[in-house]
Every structure is written in C-alpha cells, then in structure tokens.
Amino acid sequence: MQTALVNVIEPIFDNEFHDRSFGFRHGRGCHDALRVVEELLESDHVFVVDADLQGYFDTIPKDRLLALVGEKISDRRVLELVKRFLDQSVLEELREWTPESGVPQGAVLSPLLSNLYLNELDHRMAGLGYEMVRYADDFVILCRSQEQAELALEEVKRFVAEAGLTLHPEKTHIVDSREKSFEFLGYSFRGKLRFPRSKSHRKMTDRIRQLTPRKSGQPLESTIAEINRVTVGWFAYFRHCTWNIFDKYDGMIRKRLRRQLLKRHRTNPERLCRTHRWPNAYFSERGFRSLRAAHTRYVQSVIDH
After folding, report:
1. 225: domain range?
2. Measured between alpha carbons, how far is residue 31 from residues 28, 96, 111, 242 in Å?
3. Are residues 178 and 47 in the same domain?
4. Domain count across the chain
C-alpha cells in the first residue's frame, strides 16, 4: 500500500523539491551531493555551517507535516492514508501507544515526507543566497566568510524553531575548512582533500581485522575472496579519496595476511625460508584486488573521459 501511495504522490512533490536536495530522489545520490560540496570548496566557499538536526525523524510535528501534504494533495482518500501511516502505533515494552510526532523510520513513505518537511528550508536558504547542500536530514552550508556563515546559521535556527525541530548543540558549528575538517555523508573534508571520516575508517579497519585473525584454518584464497567482497563496495563509495588512503589499506591487508602465513608455517622452517617474504605479487596471484591499483584505474578513466 505504501509503495502505491508513494508512486502516486512522489511526482507531485518531487517537482517542488530544490535542486540541492539529493536524498532519496531518482537520479540523485550521495556522490552528486559530494561533488557539489567539492566544487563549492574549490570556489572559496571554505566557511562551513555543519548542522545536525537532533532526532529529526522522531520529532517532525505530524500536524504540520499533514498540512504540507494537504497543500498539494486535495484527494481526501490519499490524505487519510498518509494520516494512517503517521498514526501507526508503536509497541514499546508491551505497551502500545501512538506517537504525537515523528515519521516511522525505514518505511517506504518516510524519505519522501522527511524531504517535504525540509523543502521550505532548502528554498529559503537558496532565496537568501546561501549555498546549502542537503541529503535527507544531513546538510551543510558553504560560505565565503565567517560573517556569512554566522548569518546562515542564525537563519537555520529561525527555521528550526518555527518548524518545531531541534539543532544538536554539540554537533552544530561553523568550521573554517582550511584549518579544521568537517564531515558530510561519510567523508571528512579538510582544505581541498577528502578522506573517509574516522567512524568509516574505524569500521573498515575492524572488518579487515575480523577477516584476518592470526590463526585461521581456511585457505588464503578464501580469506582474500572475503576481503575483496568487503573492499569492492567500500572503494565504490570512497573512490574519490586521495591515493595514499588506499595505499595504507593495501599495506594493512597484506601485513595481516603475512602474519597469518607466518603463524601457519612456523613449524615448517624449510618452507618458511622459501616464502618468508611473500611479496605483493604473491597475494595478487591469489586474487587480491589492490585498492591503490583500483584507484589508479579510476583516475585514469576520469582523465580519459
């Protein structure tokens, strides 16, 4: 039912959404938003309002959201379906209750409604000349001066107060990106460089460690195949980082594989002498896909086109 409802109302609202809104929209994605951020940084928009809406999905006022839907949808049956969706009961500790605010997360209709509620902010900021880039509830505003950034943040605070939302006091700030990094969509930006944010890096590092314990009974080729399945998706998202990031990951993976081999062959000194170095080519021959090599190919493909 929700999918059918989205198919009916999404085209109506999507035409009203601002071009700088990239989340959960056909033909748009994270990399499109990131590209705009990079272009703005390169054009000296280095003062960044890094804002965080606290518990956004859980705090959207239902009555105001329904009013926004009603501005474009006159069919009472459709409005009733949206209202039923928002009024879904929640079972918490065996007690059923109906939240007075919030949009159920994970539902098909949620992304569209969450975009709708912030659409006014998109248009308001653009109308005032601010360069705001938004993906769902994650947004940044890039400015040419500290003063402009401060004015932009004040405007955001006004909207948030009017909309019944809350800015996270500890996660909302202004950054001079030439001196300090800011995070957006899994990336950390500093100057004209971007790299995986600390959380993304830590998650990837932990996963590699899980796949490469010092003692392992499975064949090396199987371990490498598991690593490749993890790194291929990670690289697809973070391929825009500088090459040294991938070089470090390659080194870490090979180092841990060598530790496995040392542990495995420690009781066989003769074989250990013949293979103790295990050069990079040794792992490539067994299927290891170098992230640095993948990045080199990606950069070359961009140059060629």
Report:
1. 197-304
2. 8, 40, 18, 16
3. yes
4. 2
